[in-house]
Design brief:
The complex is a heterodimer of chains A (786) and B (232).
Chain A (H helix, E strand, L loop, with lengths): L6 H14 L4 H22 L18 H5 L6 H4 L1 H8 L5 H9 L8 H19 L13 H5 L4 H29 L11 H10 L3 E6 L6 E6 L3 H4 L6 E6 L6 E2 L10 E4 L9 E7 L4 E8 L10 E10 L5 E9 L13 E9 L6 E2 L7 E8 L3 E10 L12 E4 H4 L14 H21 L3 H7 L13 H6 L2 H9 L11 H9 L7 H12 L1 H13 L3 H6 L22 H14 L11 H16 L7 H6 L9 H10 L7 E4 L5 E3 L9 H9 L11 H14 L2 H8 L8 H13 L17 E5 L3 E4 L20 H7 L2
Antiparallel strand pairs in A: 1-2, 2-5, 3-4, 3-6, 6-7, 8-9, 9-12, 10-11, 10-13, 13-14, 15-16, 17-18
Chain B lengths: L1 H26 L20 H31 L23 H6 L2 H25 L8 H28 L15 H4 L4 H33 L6
The chains are: A alpha+beta (786), B mainly alpha (232).
Chain lengths: 786, 232
């Protein structure tokens, strides 16, 4: 035969069979034949559906040869259904089946057991094959029948026979197992095999135990159809309290009806655990353990009635109050038991009951009942803190028409037109949104759809940069530290230069008189200068200007950046313009280097390095600009020049200024002045005057021959050369050209260190000294002034 | 003129404040509607009926909580473990002979019953404390169980206090020997084996439910007996 039946099954079956083999060897063997079929089914179940030939392996060695050779599996055609049936079947106790199979006792195994086993077999057989007539106890000899089995019905009958045999034997095991249980272990659920059978078998069992009032209790059981098949037995209900050892019999079988046991108050201890068991002589069928307070199911309430509370104005609805009494058995009054009630009501022709919340009181109002309809009400009760309700009371009928309030002709109320509300609401909302979006009202739009804010740099308005005036921009930029506008006019410089604030140097004291003398001029100049201010400078003025004779403090031009710069400039002024008289030192050496560096600097427009200048500064700075201050009044008008053109390079071409303004006195002054500048800058006024003087002396074309600056500015070089020539030889004509422009473009601003003037393209003949007007770097200053 | 009016207003305000403060100081009463009964005072304003009402309410609440916590525990942990199948172990208060049915409850002397109630409450003081703390060690204990355990323990304390007050009122003579049953189930709540530990909890909660039901019933019976003279 095919030998593909699964091995593990074999093992299990084998062990079980071995365990049961003691019961009845022959029976076992005969059963095993059928068991083969069972096993076959089992195996097939695992791999459903295999060909039937697989089933025919002899799994048990103890099979009698006759049976072994017998084809347990029918030939493919008719036999296939059988395994498939087995495949389709999925009875929970696979092992039960094996047990059944192992045990194949004759039906007459024990008086009670046989029938039971038969019943079991019947049950299992029925389960297996569906509804089939239960055959009587099968004869032990099955081999012939098996061998001759052909056709489906025959197979099924064989199955049933086998089951019957097995069950008979199985009962042995069951009872043995049961008796092995420790007594008082509590209700042991019948084994799975019994459970499998019970549905059909209707074993006697305790259906429920109930106490209606927590003073007595009753237990009910069902006898099952057990009695019909076997000798009627006498069922007993035994009970035992937890602290007792003996089982006692039920005291009252009658009071609660048939198949019941009633324990009156004397037998009832409320909070004591009880165990009851249903048993016959030797056998326990069922067992339950509980305590009385857990099984309380009150009786239903009684005496339901209702009264009308009020009706609505239209008469369509009405309120009623329902009252009832607690169940008479329950002693609610003394507080021994506390009940809560649940009311249910519905219209007469409805199917679903409406429930109210459980409550303790025995009356409840019902609101808004339709007077045109009739209602039904029922109530049930339960013990508080328990979950199960008792039975429902009788139904109470509520009919308003009986009282005469019925409103038969009342029409139904119109329901709220939800649909219309929704539709109109949506439309309105859409219209509103669209109108807002399309509206030109920016405020409304902004309210509903606020614009996303754009980041702004604090202090600088991009629009200003785009289309603002340069002056404004400069003024704003000038507010920041370390930045000096390039648009300071001469006036301011002159102011800077002229004003001497708290200069402790003795050198500067000589300029006090000058300062005093020229104070008026200064003021005027300052006023003039103020007009020409960049607007921002005034605003950037620091309020804490040191109290000095600094008349320019009004305009605060000089100190827009810092006091330091101010002081530096003051010192510079002193050095440059005011102390020029004192210092005779020339700065050819310095000037040269400075010039060259300035060249470099000018060419690199982004460099703001004053360091080279600082290094080179050694010679004292002649900064006597007193002469200039004296001559300021004369030269005041010379501080402005008209811009004639702007070169692509960004330089401003000034129209030729007033050359002839400088008087002779200036000329003299100019010659006497020693432009010992270690800086690149001269006081413009000085240079102007000097140059003007010289220019006076000389021909203009001569001056021009010198080479105009490309942009008509004084450049340091030009100035240098000019001054140098002036300084070197008083009558030396200025080598450089003589543009009378009053402005020198500032190339680089290095506040507070000074300014770098633009150098012209002209070669500097004399590179000995730098010439700058009024500009001295702090480094130079520091070097000059100890 | 304005100064006069403001002065008048400020005076009124001051007067009002003074009145208020004096009222508060003099009356020394809170805002609660119930009169405060300071502890240990002999002349308490609470009537016995009021005390019993409160005690009954508390006992009912405790029983309600115990039922709930038992049901939750049963649902969550006891299913499939066969706790019900095992015999319900006796509770540690089984040694106290409490009335087991209505007649016994009606026949027992009210003072004895009160003492018994007190005894049961005292015996549960300790286990409840440990229940509240140990239940938190249960793996993934639901929050409802946790707070219920704590709540039960608190309410039990309050009920104990209330009962002591009642006993102080009702007892004519001295209090007899204090009824009390010690509890030694703490190790079982701390077992390493989870099954055994859960079974210990199950038993404890089962006993708690039963005892709280007992107390609830006894108090109602007592209330009816003492306050309403059995004419409830």
């Amino acid at each position: 035969m095919a030998a593909e039946c699964p091995a593990p099954q074999q093992g299990r079956a084998g062990t079980e069979r071995a365990a049961a083999s003691e019961a009845s060897a022959t029976a076992a063997e005969t059963a095993s034949a059928a068991a083969g079929g069972r096993r076959m089914g089992r195996g097939i179940r695992e791999r459903c559906p295999p060909p039937p030939a697989l089933c025919c392996s002899p799994l048990r060695p103890s099979l009698p040869p006759s049976l072994r050779s017998a084809p347990l599996c029918s030939p493919p055609g008719p036999a296939r259904p059988a395994p498939r049936e087995e495949c389709g079947l999925s009875p929970p106790p696979r092992r039960s089946r094996s047990r059944f199979m192992t045990v194949a006792a004759s039906p007459e195994v024990g008086a009670g057991r046989g029938g039971r086993s038969l019943k079991r077999s019947h049950g299992s057989g029925a389960r297996r094959g569906g509804a089939r007539p239960l055959p009587p106890a099968a004869p032990p000899k099955l081999g012939g029948s098996f061998r001759a089995s052909r056709g489906r019905s025959m197979d099924l009958r064989h199955l049933l026979f086998t089951l019957a045999l097995i069950c008979a034997n199985d009962s042995l095991f069951a009872s043995d197992a049961r008796e092995e249980d420790a007594p008082g272990k509590g209700q042991r659920a019948p084994s799975w095999k019994a459970a499998a059978v019970k549905d059909l078998l209707q074993w006697p069992q305790i259906s429920k135990c109930r106490s209606p009032e927590m003073e007595t209790f009753s237990c009910f059981w069902t006898a099952g159809n057990f009695y019909n098949l076997t000798v009627p037995r006498i069922l007993q209900l035994l009970y035992k309290k937890s602290n007792e050892e003996d089982w006692k019999e039920c005291p009252d079988y009658i009071t609660s009806g048939q198949n019941s046991c009633y324990f009156n108050a004397s037998y009832t201890s409320v909070w004591t655990p009880y165990c009851v068991q249903l048993a016959s002589k030797n056998e326990v069928y069922d067992k339950k353990c509980f305590s009385v307070d857990e099984i309380v199911l009150p009786d239903p309430p009684v005496h339901l009635n209702w009264t009308l509370l009020n009706t609505s104005q239209t008469g369509i609805h009405g309120d009623i109050q329902v009252r009832w009494d607690p169940p008479p058995t329950a002693d609610v009054r003394k507080g021994w038991i506390t009940l809560e009630y649940e009311l249910q009501y519905k219209e007469v022709n409805e199917t679903k009951w409406k429930e109210l919340k459980p409550r303790l009181s025995t009356m409840v109002p019902l609101y808004s009942l339709k007077t045109a309809r009739d209602y039904e009400i029922r109530i049930r009760s339960r013990q508080r803190t328990s979950e199960k309700f008792g039975e429902f009371s009788e139904i109470l009928y509520v009919s308003f028409s009986q009282i005469g309030i019925g409103c038969d002709h009342c029409t139904e109320e119109v329901e709220f037109p939800w649909f219309l509300v929704v539709v109109f609401g949506v439309c309105g909302l859409a219209v509103t949104v669209i109108s807002i979006m399309l509206s030109k009202q920016p405020r409304l739009k902004m309210l509903i759809f606020p614009p996303v804010p754009v980041p702004k740099i604090k202090g600088i308005d991009p629009d200003l940069l785009k289309k603002g005036k340069l002056e404004e921009v400069n003024s704003i930029l000038a507010c920041h530290d370390n930045y000096k506008t390039q648009l300071y006019s001469d006036d301011l410089w002159v102011e800077f230069i002229e004003l001497d604030i708290e200069d402790p140097d003795e050198k500067n004291r000589a300029s006090d008189t000058d300062r005093l003398l020229s104070e008026d001029h200064l003021k005027s100049h300052s006023s003039l200068g103020a007009k020409d201010d960049d607007s921002g400078r005034a605003s950037c003025c620091e309020p804490d200007i040191p109290e000095t004779d600094f008349s320019a403090s009004d305009t605060c031009d000089a100190t827009s950046d810092s006091d330091q710069f101010k002081k530096a400039t003051e010192k510079e002024e002193d050095l440059l313009c005011l102390d020029r008289q004192d210092n005779d030192e020339s700065l050819p050496s310095l000037a040269n280097t400075d010039l060259q560096r300035q060249h470099r600097n000018s060419q690199s427009e982004n460099s703001h390095q004053w360091a080279p200048f600082g290094d080179s500064v050694e010679s004292p700075r002649p900064s006597a600009h007193t002469q200039i201050s004296n001559q300021n009044s004369l030269a005041s008008t010379d501080f402005y020049a008209q811009v004639s053109d702007i070169t692509p390079a960004g330089r401003v071409v000034l129209s030729p200024g007033q050359k002839s303004k400088l008087g002779r006195a200036q000329r003299e002054v100019c010659t006497e002045q020693s432009f010992t500048m270690d800086n690149t800058y001269f006081c413009e006024a000085d240079v102007k005057k000097c140059i003007a003087v010289t220019s006076h002396e000389e021909n203009e074309p001569h001056v021009q021959e010198q080479g105009y600056n490309e942009d008509g500015y004084f450049t340091t070089e030009s100035l240098t050369t000019t001054v140098a020539s002036l300084g070197a030889s008083t009558a030396a004509p200025p080598s450089s050209e003589m543009p009378v422009a009053d402005y020198t473009s500032i190339h680089i601003v290095q506040s507070p260190q000074g300014l770098v003037l633009n150098a012209t393209a002209l070669t500097v003949p004399d590179k000995e000294f730098n010439v700058s007007c009024g500009y001295v770097s702090t480094d130079q200053l520091n070097k000059i002034m100890p | 003129m304005p100064t006069m009016s403001t002065r008048g207003a400020s005076l009124k305000g001051l007067l009002l404040v003074a009145l208020l403060v004096s009222h508060m100081l003099l009356t020394k009463e809170g805002v609660t509607s119930l009169p405060i009964c300071p502890k240990g005072s002999v002349n308490c304003q609470l009537s016995l009926e009021e005390l019993f009402d409160r005690a009954v309410k508390l006992a009912h609440y405790i029983h309600f909580l115990s039922s709930e916590i038992f049901n939750e525990f049963d649902e969550r942990y006891a299913q499939g473990r066969g706790f019900i199948a095992k015999a319900v172990n006796s509770c540690h208060t089984a040694s106290l002979t409490t009335p087991e049915d209505k007649e016994q409850a009606q026949q027992i002397h009210h003072e004895d019953l009160l003492n018994l109630i007190l005894g049961v409450l005292r015996s549960w003081n300790d286990p409840l404390i440990h229940l509240a703390s140990e239940v938190q060690r249960i793996k993934e204990a639901p929050e409802t169980i946790l707070w219920k355990a704590v709540e039960i323990e608190e309410q039990n304390k309050r009920l104990l206090e209330g009962m002591e007050k009642i006993v102080g009122r009702v007892h004519s003579g001295e209090v007899e020997n204090e009824i009390y049953t010690p509890w030694d189930g703490l190790p079982s709540l701390q077992l390493a084996d989870e099954d055994s530990r859960l079974f210990a909890f199950y038993n404890l909660l089962h006993c708690l439910r039963r005892d709280s039901h007992k107390i609830d019933n006894y108090l109602k019976v007592l209330k009816c007996r003492l306050i309403h003279d059995n004419n409830c």
